[in-house]
Design a protein that fits this description.
mainly alpha
Length: about 40
């Protein structure tokens, strides 16, 4: 319990994009420097 486990790829993709959008937002600019990688190429 308490862990976000997605059973559909579409849900995983939406969650990834939402997190990426936040990490690249004005709220985090200059505070963190996100880098992205994937093994799902």
């Amino acid at each position: 319990d308490g862990y976000p486990v997605y059973t559909r790829k579409a849900c995983t993709d939406v969650a990834y994009l939402a997190c990426a959008q936040f990490l690249l937002s004005d709220d985090t600019r200059g505070r963190i420097f996100p880098q992205f990688a994937t093994h799902n190429a």
